């Protein structure tokens, strides 16, 4: 067994940390202004391209950084340190875009990889959250292609993106299908931009689609493949959430350790009190254990065959569930160690406290991850617990 980072991972970690440190310069502005102005977006975009960390999940031949899953985890851990979800400025196109035809790739994916366009993924609806089968958005065929009608909620980056990947029930069979839709297509309206608990550099708006005409060539993948494509995206996406929450938790622990050593009460540093030491130790345990497992699963995905797919889906669910819940515990303790300052938005721990909460909700709630894990145990036994064998 070799648990060491490869020389390439060491380099990527350093590059990602340098980029993270640069982007962190915008954290306070993002918090105060609930977003960033266009010039800040342009500077970060240039920095991402200079670092070569654009589209880390896309092949180098298309202009992406072409990283393995283990390498992506290394990068996402560093980016996860950022507050204001500034990690999302380091764009990683939806993996679903790998299903583009060559023409779609030139029109949509390649410009996203270059940082010239931006995608967003619209699956959730008012009545279709954990259960996307409840979908009411429809796609009806006509002589010019497809006509979309319906609504989508919580569309992350929906304000900034210029095209959407929309899940709709297509045709009389209600076949779940993804469509590539330019956001300025007539009939698309951004109806509400809710204010959420976290400060996020982009918004998560709601959209309505009224007789939105798209061409036959707007179908991504194939008719009826919408769930399968979305699901195949979840395994990697959930692992990246695990990685980012671990990075966030590590930053919070570093800040809290430093604060505990520096802050004196009752005539001594608070780090000398065992109740504080217990919290620091519990944070270290939560981070160390989850980091190791997340890297294990990343390695397994990189070395997997097609028949491992279902078990790896469950392993990614374990990683997401465990890391997001552990980081929630970590940030709660870290806020406590900071005392009243931990409640001040000028402190990173306060922002992380609000921001880490959603990781237990999006890309499948903690309850849904538990269902996936239990389902795997019931169907295929406890192999999900096994270490990979050489
Ligand atoms: C900030 C933010 C950004 C988002 N970005 C996107 C995006 O870009 N694109 C997109 O499509 N969606 C996005 N989402 C939507 C997100 O994926 C959903 O919120 C999530 O899947 C849960 O769906 P829901 O909110 O409808 O909750 P519901 O599904 O209504 O769940 C409510 C509660 O019931 C529980 N529950 C549901 N079913 C079961 C069950 N079978 N057993 C046990 N418990 C159950 C849930 O775990 C939860 O606790 C985003 C959400 C948020 C908050």
From TrEMBL:
- Flavoprotein: is it a keyword of this entry? yes
Q: Which InterPro entries match?
A: Acyl-CoA_dehydrogenase (IPR050741), Acyl-CoA_Oxase/DH_mid-dom (IPR006091), Acyl-CoA_Oxase/DH_mid-dom_sf (IPR046373), AcylCo_DH-like_C (IPR036250), AcylCo_DH/oxidase_C (IPR009075), AcylCoA_DH/ox_N (IPR013786), AcylCoA_DH/ox_N_sf (IPR037069), AcylCoA_DH/oxidase_NM_dom_sf (IPR009100)
Broadest EC class assigned to this enzyme = oxidoreductase
Write out the GO MF terms: oxidoreductase activity
EC number(s) stated in the UniProt entry for this protein: 1.-.-.-
Task: Determine if Flavoprotein is one of this entry's keywords.
Answer: yes
Cite the entry's keywords alphabetically.
FAD, Flavoprotein, Oxidoreductase
Highest taxon of source: Bacteria
Q: Where is the Acyl-CoA dehydrogenase/oxidase N-terminal domain?
A: 7-116
Residue stretches making up the Acyl-CoA dehydrogenase/oxidase C-terminal domain: 224-377
Cofactor(s) recorded in Swiss-Prot or TrEMBL: FAD
Question: What region holds the Acyl-CoA oxidase/dehydrogenase middle domain?
Answer: 120-211
Give the protein family.
Answer: Belongs to the acyl-CoA dehydrogenase family.
Q: What is this protein called?
A: Acyl-CoA dehydrogenase family protein
Species per Swiss-Prot/TrEMBL record: Streptomyces coerulescens
């Amino acid at each position: 067994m070799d648990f060491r980072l490869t020389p390439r991972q060491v380099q990527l970690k350093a590059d990602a940390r340098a980029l993270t440190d640069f982007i962190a310069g915008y954290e306070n502005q993002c918090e105060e202004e609930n977003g960033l102005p266009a010039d800040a977006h342009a500077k970060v975009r240039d920095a991402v391209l200079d670092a070569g960390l654009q589209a880390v999940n896309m092949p180098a031949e298309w202009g992406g950084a072409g990283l393995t899953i283990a390498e992506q985890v290394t990068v996402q851990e560093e980016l996860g340190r950022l507050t204001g979800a500034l990690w999302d400025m380091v764009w990683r196109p939806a993996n679903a875009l790998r299903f583009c035809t060559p023409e779609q790739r030139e029109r949509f994916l390649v410009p996203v990889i270059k940082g010239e366009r931006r995608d967003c993924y619209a699956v959730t609806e008012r009545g279709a959250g954990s259960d996307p089968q409840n979908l009411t958005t429809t796609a009806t065929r006509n002589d010019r292609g497809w006509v979309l009608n319906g609504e989508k909620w919580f569309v992350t980056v929906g304000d900034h993106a210029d095209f959407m990947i929309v899940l709709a029930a297509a045709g009389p069979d209600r076949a779940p299908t993804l469509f590539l839709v330019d956001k300025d297509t007539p009939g698309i309206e951004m109806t509400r931009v809710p204010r959420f608990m976290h400060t996020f550099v982009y918004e998560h708006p709601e959209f309505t689609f009224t007789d939105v005409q798209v061409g036959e060539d707007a179908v991504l993948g194939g008719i009826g493949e919408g769930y399968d494509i979305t699901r195949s995206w979840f395994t990697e996406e959930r692992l990246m959430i695990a990685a980012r929450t671990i990075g966030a938790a590590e930053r919070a622990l570093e800040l809290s350790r430093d604060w505990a050593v520096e802050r004196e009460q009752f005539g001594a540093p608070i780090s000398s009190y065992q109740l504080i030491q217990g919290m620091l130790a519990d944070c270290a345990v939560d981070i160390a254990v989850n980091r190791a497992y997340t890297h294990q699963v990343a390695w397994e995905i990189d070395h997997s065959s097609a028949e491992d797919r279902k078990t790896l889906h469950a392993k990614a669910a374990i990683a997401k569930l465990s890391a997001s819940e552990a980081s929630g515990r970590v940030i709660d303790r870290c806020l406590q160690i900071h005392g009243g300052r931990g409640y001040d938005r000028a402190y990173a721990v306060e922002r992380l406290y609000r921001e880490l909460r959603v990781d237990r909700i999006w890309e499948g709630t903690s309850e849904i991850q538990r269902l996936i894990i239990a389902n795997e145990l019931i169907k295929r036994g406890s192999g999900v617990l096994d270490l990979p064998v050489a």
